[in-house]
């Protein structure tokens, strides 16, 4: 078999492809990347680790032989090498897929802070405490 990728990167990519996309063709993965549909946030996170570098694209683009002679990671890179702005596309898709979860992570603490501020603003005991401190301070400054 002809190999263009670093052996360790190729092996890890093969493991990712087998575990996450066992019943999916490379063209289906490519289509999902282009349309930004059909992928989960975990899929996207895994795919982002295996975006072809310029060097990998350059070396794999020179290959003119049959696809069957290439290992799966090289076939995958060959299938997706022409997708424009792949890294940015996957980051945007990851943001879209995780937006609601991230919003909840921010929304709940803000809701708690807002409630705490309302309680502080409407607290009669706190108003009395500040008034008492002001009177003590004024008395000490006057005497």
TrEMBL record:
<feature type="domain" description="FH2">
    <location>
        <begin position="1"/>
        <end position="143"/>
    </location>
</feature>
<dbReference type="InterPro" id="IPR015425">
    <property type="entry name" value="FH2_Formin"/>
</dbReference>
<dbReference type="InterPro" id="IPR042201">
    <property type="entry name" value="FH2_Formin_sf"/>
</dbReference>
<dbReference type="Pfam" id="PF02181">
    <property type="entry name" value="FH2"/>
</dbReference>
<protein>
    <recommendedName>
        <fullName>FH2 domain-containing protein</fullName>
    </recommendedName>
</protein>
<keyword id="KW-0175">Coiled coil</keyword>
<keyword id="KW-0009">Actin-binding</keyword>
<dbReference type="GO" id="GO:0003779">
    <property type="term" value="F:actin binding"/>
</dbReference>
<dbReference type="InterPro" id="IPR051425">
    <property type="entry name" value="Formin_Homology"/>
</dbReference>
<comment type="similarity">
    <text>Belongs to the formin homology family. Diaphanous subfamily.</text>
</comment>
């Amino acid at each position: 078999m002809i190999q263009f990728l670093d052996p360790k990167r190729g092996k890890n990519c093969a493991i990712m492809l087998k575990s996450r996309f066992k019943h999916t063709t490379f063209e289906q993965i490519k289509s999902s990347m282009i349309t930004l549909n059909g992928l989960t946030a975990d899929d996207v996170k895994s795919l982002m680790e295996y975006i072809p570098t310029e060097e990998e694209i350059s070396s794999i683009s020179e290959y003119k032989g049959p696809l069957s002679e290439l290992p799966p990671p090289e076939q995958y890179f060959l299938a997706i090498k022409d997708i424009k702005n792949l890294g940015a596309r996957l980051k945007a898709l990851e943001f879209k897929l995780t937006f609601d979860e991230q919003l909840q992570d921010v929304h709940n603490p803000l809701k708690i802070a807002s409630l705490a501020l309302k309680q502080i603003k409407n607290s009669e005991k706190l108003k009395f405490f500040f008034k008492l401190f002001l009177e003590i301070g004024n008395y000490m400054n006057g005497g």
